[in-house]
Amino acid sequence: MARTLSMKDAINEALDQEMTRDPTVIMMGEDIVGGAGAAGEDDAWGGVLGVSKGLYAKHPKQMIDTPLSESAYVGAAIGAATCGLRPVAELMFIDFMGVCLDQIYNQAAKFRYMFGGKAETPVVIRAMCGAGFRAAAQHSQMLTPIFAHIPGLKVVCPSNAYDTKGLLIQAIRDNDPVIFLEHKNLYGSECDVPEEPYAIPFGEANVVREGSDVTIVTYGLMVPNSLTAAETLKKEGIDVEVIDLRTISPIDMDTVIESVEETGRLVCVDEANPRCSIASDISSVVAQDAFGALKAPIEMVTAPHAPVPFTPSLEDIYIPSPDRIADAVRKTMASSKQEVAAQ
Amino acid sequence: MSDLIIPILMPKWGLSMSEGTLAAWHVEEGTEISPGDEIMDVETDKIANVVEAADGGLLRRRVGSDGEIYPVRALLGVMAPAEVSDAEIDAFVDAYELPEVEEEEDTGPTYEFADLPIGKIRYAERSGEGTPVIFIHGFGGDLDNWLFNIDAVSEVAPAYALDLPGHGQSVKAVDQPGLDKLVTTIIDFMDHLGVDKAHLVGHSKGGLVSGQTAISHPDRVASLTLICSAGLGAEINSDYIEGFVSAASRKELKPKLHHLFADKSLVNRSMVDDLLKYKRIDGVQDYLEALKAALFDGGSQAVDIAKGLEALDIPLLVVWGAEDAVIPVAHADAVSGAEVVVIDGAGHMVQMENANRVNELITSRL
């Protein structure tokens, strides 16, 4: 049988294989090594959740533990990228991007454009994202829309271990800045992952489930939640197609439009807050380009416009659940039935 | 009385299959079934195929329903002679239990790996008695191309299927890929297995490899079965070869795969995704480009082994799908003295599209 790997181990393997293949690939971040622990242990931490554990022993010259200053080392990584290295900077949580946004959106994202195509910035900035980890409002956000808004950045948010390895390798080989977002509640999810290195091109959505009645467009943790909803709905005779965007920027609208033209119904599921979100973006493009194909109003399932609560019971209802997704799908089915009845 | 009852079970096609959809029954209750009759369509996430009866008998009960999903080895139907009472059949159906999955995996086949001089080679092994059969896949294929063949053939002989270098889960980094390296791999593989002589069954490019192996090492090959084989003429569908190599996305690849089957609906999303996953592994693109340049450059086949095969003194069976859109069926007649069978209603992947007929041809000649 093919080998299974968790998303966390898939990230480790991608970093390991790329640092082996290319000595200009380096890692920078807080406690990605973490200092000596017990005797013989030279990477006591290996990152906040142990993602880079074991890599320092193999690549001691390619891993830099940085001071607790995201603005400094993200800036350094971007500068190094323009000078010939391929740095992978790790921020523990996407929430910390705020302190280094100037480096990201005003520098890295602009270099190629402002230097007339003469400068390239092959940097990857990795961070954990998403809610459900009981980590409160400053460590749980899904800030994909902020980065998708900025031209010059590529934004990736995988839903499974296979895609994670191939997309991270692609991110490292890509000559533009990539924001690579890993949902912390998916770190343990396992699937078949080839041992060999492979790259998945950006801008190619994955139809993870084929269906004829309703299209769900989503990414990240909301992919498994949508698939759970689809299984429930199947028992009710509703056949749901689920599209995993995989990369938010570039975005594969062709696959979305083609699917909606078949199903006529769209549910956008996004763990981000609803205003100016990936869900609202998809919804606006479909309304503009495929309005004639729609049999029912577009539905959106998102977090509320509120910070992520620390109270576990509130956090659980904050995150779009399979039940809420299923309800939204039923709503699109019901409204189109009314339309048919009215004719 | 229960030894008169013959169960019809959900088949297991390949290691990854855990469940299948009973798409449609082809026989009604009360029908007398003969071995080989088409009794139902089964679909998995990988492939759809018709199931033929392994045993004959009177179909007394359809336990499985059209459109429902069942685990592998689930009871789908019951055959029994008329003297068995309905109550006994009820009791059999009620008492039927799925075999434990763990047992299945303990005793069932697994993939093996061999360290050959060229690198790591993956293969599947089915034990049996006599001179072994080795299945050799085509360009861009892998050992799962023999999904519907290896088990049936292993009932009469030990059966092996391997991933050639550059393919499947075998080594991808190969210097200057070409026919010689593939032939050497087959001989090294036989040495690794301790197999002195084998029946080679090759599909497409694998047919060319099989034939060249027999020509170069006539003492190692007991017989040849060449299925829609390369190496028997110049023509080959360059839209398929070029398109398969250059396709970088699902949209580009899917129409190219339509060339492989007479029934285009067999090309499903899972098949396209699996091939894309293969093509995206580091080294595969370079390997396919180099092998294409060595064997099929400029839309024509570089190697013709027909004359070499005529000089051999071993049984040679040539099988072709009448609707092959990759290599012309006219090439089936290239080797004088060979037994030729052309199968209607099947394309280039005839060993998948009409597995039962191909299996019968192979096993009846062993």
TrEMBL record, chain A:
InterPro entries cross-referenced by the UniProt entry: THDP-binding, Transketo_C/PFOR_II, Transketolase-like_Pyr-bd, Transketolase_C
Residue ranges occupied by any Transketolase-like pyrimidine-binding domain in the UniProt entry: 5-189
One of the Pfam families matching this protein, by short name: Transket_pyr
Keyword line: Oxidoreductase
GO MF annotation terms: oxidoreductase activity
Domain of life: Bacteria
Protein name: Acetoin dehydrogenase complex, E1 component subunit beta
UniProtKB/TrEMBL annotation, chain B:
Alphabetical keyword list: Lipoyl, Transferase
GO molecular function: transferase activity
Cofactor section: (R)-lipoate
Domain Lipoyl-binding: 5-80
Keyword RNA-binding among record annotations: no
NCBIfam families: PRK14875.1
Protein name: Acetoin dehydrogenase E2 subunit dihydrolipoyllysine-residue acetyltransferase
Species: Actibacterium atlanticum
Organism phylogeny: Bacteria, Pseudomonadati, Pseudomonadota, Alphaproteobacteria, Rhodobacterales
